[in-house]
Design goal:
Helix content: 40-55%
InterPro entries: CCA_bact (IPR012006), HD/PDEase_dom (IPR003607), HD_domain (IPR006674), NT_sf (IPR043519), PolA_pol_head_dom (IPR002646), PolyA_RNA-bd (IPR032828), tRNA_CCA-adding_enzyme (IPR050124)
CATH topology of one domain: Beta Polymerase, domain 2
CATH class of one domain: Alpha Beta
Keywords: ATP-binding, Hydrolase, Magnesium, Metal-binding, Multifunctional enzyme, Nickel, Nucleotide-binding, Nucleotidyltransferase, RNA repair, RNA-binding, Transferase, tRNA processing
CATH architecture of one domain: 2-Layer Sandwich
Bound molecules: cytidine-5'-triphosphate, magnesium ion
Largest sheet: 7 strands, mixed
Shape: elongated
Strand content: 5-15%
CATH superfamily of one domain: Beta Polymerase, domain 2
GO molecular function, one term: cyclic-nucleotide phosphodiesterase activity
Number of strands: 11
Catalytic activity: a tRNA with a 3' CCA end + 2 CTP + ATP = a tRNA with a 3' CCACCA end + 3 diphosphate; a tRNA precursor + 2 CTP + ATP = a tRNA with a 3' CCA end + 3 diphosphate
Number of helices: 19
EC number: 2.7.7.72, 3.1.3.-, 3.1.4.-
């Protein structure tokens, strides 16, 4: 048997980038041999094994035939007679279809190195279509390597469009899609991920509520970029530039979906878009099976981002309600993430990227002022239960009044 390094490790070494994990392909071996050598099988009928010591993935060289939809829809032909070239040709991108032997020799039958130098993400063969998840993968790689100058080959974008239009993306499981979406949002150019999906028609299949924002105008005074879709892309870009965590990026992606519901005769105004968007955000969260911290923050940012922008004008009682709504006394971090999302929203506007956002410090200061109100004196005065809560609220309101006055 021969073992080759494949995939991301080969690609990233040639790019001079750090290597996060190594994938291997094994040619000329059977599953039985692998088991005898102590490799652990990953799944019952999946020709992938984990190395007994390193835990790295070793896949038997295979050709893949599609038999139906979704995960269960794969059948594999993995046998000792499958060659390295046969295995590589069914991989997603040429830059991912290079192998390296144990002498460090590059095996590159599909010109991955050439595409790497030309900064092109190109599919290897029509076998690309065997796994529609690759549409998301390509968009994710585009988001990761955009700063190096990479873009998607025209013919690959066309194939992605065919896949999107065939309805295949609807059969992806939420788990697989979320893994790609969440990873892509954390890349240096999450906006490129969304843009590439849109360019091939996949955004309309995956996140139609976001796709609908393109072509919807906003008032130029607040949004020099005018287009709501463009605004969302800018906000995502700000998120990456400010190293925001996943939940802030997810909330940013969804914060304005309500604007897609505004009747055209009301454009460019979007009255109550925060409230109107909530049912969309909830539906997206459920459909995508977004983890709780992402889902929750997206709902809160959707509902309250305008409050964030108006922080300095809010009455102390409204401020207190906002803080209570965020349960800021127990969950200060989530409130800080909300404030961060508001700031990204404010900066994700054409020409306003460097603006100050005094609302941010103001809101965090208000939360702190309210949090500082001590409970002990109230307990000592004998307050209990609901009465204690009310007394605490009165004190907090006083603290917020003093904070606003100073
Ligand atoms: N749907 C998929 C998933 C994986 N692969 C192939 O399997 C390799 C390893 O997959 P993975 O680890 O998911 O991606 P990497 O390219 O290694 O990228 P990353 O840096 O994200 O690990 C890829 O390079 C690619 O050759 C593929 O063709 N189609
Ligand atoms: Mg990998």
């Amino acid at each position: 048997m021969q073992i080759y390094k494949v995939g991301g490790a080969v690609r990233d070494r040639l790019l001079g980038r750090p290597i996060s994990e190594v994938d291997w392909v094994v040619v000329g071996a059977s599953a039985e041999q692998m088991l005898e050598l102590g490799y652990r099988p990953v799944g019952a009928d999946f020709p992938v094994f984990l190395h007994p010591q390193t835990g790295e993935e070793y896949a038997l060289a295979r050709t893949e035939r599609k038999s139906g939809h979704g995960y269960g829809g794969f059948t594999f032909h993995a046998s000792p007679d499958v060659t390295l070239e046969q295995d590589l040709i069914r991989r997603d991108l040429t830059v991912n279809a290079m192998a390296e032997d144990d002498q460090g020799n590059l095996i590159d039958p599909y010109n991955g190195q050439q595409d790497l130098e030309a900064r092109i993400l190109r599919h290897v063969s029509p076998a690309f279509a065997e796994d529609p998840l690759r549409v998301l993968r390509v968009a994710r790689f585009a988001a990761r390597y955009a700063p190096l100058g990479f873009s998607v080959a025209t013919e690959t974008l066309m194939l992605m469009r065919e896949l999107a239009e065939s309805g295949e993306l609807a059969h992806l499981t939420a788990e697989r899609s979320w893994k790609e979406i969440s990873r892509a949002l954390m890349e240096p150019r999450p906006d490129v991920f969304v843009q590439v999906l849109r360019d091939c028609g996949a955004l309309a299949a995956l996140l139609p509520e976001v796709d609908d924002l393109f072509g919807v105008p906003q008032p130029q005074a607040h949004h020099p970029e005018i287009d709501t879709g463009e605004h969302v892309l800018s906000v995502l870009r700000q998120c990456a530039e400010h190293d925001q965590p996943l939940n802030v990026r997810w909330a940013s992606l969804l914060h304005d979906v309500g604007k897609g519901l505004t009747p055209e005769d009301q454009w460019p105004r979007h009255i109550a878009h925060e409230q109107k968007g909530l049912r969309l955000i909830q539906a997206i969260n459920e459909r995508c099976k977004a983890p709780r911290d992402c889902a929750e923050l997206a709902m809160l940012v959707g509902e309250f981002h305008t409050h964030g922008h108006r922080a300095l004008e809010l009455r102390p009682s409204t401020l207190l309600e906002l803080l209570q709504r965020f349960d800021v006394f127990r969950r200060p971090q989530r409130f800080a993430e909300f404030v961060a999302a508001c700031e990204m929203d404010a900066r994700g506007r054409l020409g306003l990227e460097q603006r100050e956002y005094p609302q941010g410090a103001y809101l965090l200061g208000a939360a702190e002022a309210a949090r500082q109100v001590p409970v002990k004196p109230l307990l000592e005065k004998g307050f209990k239960g609901a009465e204690l809560g009310e007394a605490l609220n009165r004190e907090r309101l006083q603290a917020l009044k003093a904070y606003k006055d100073q």
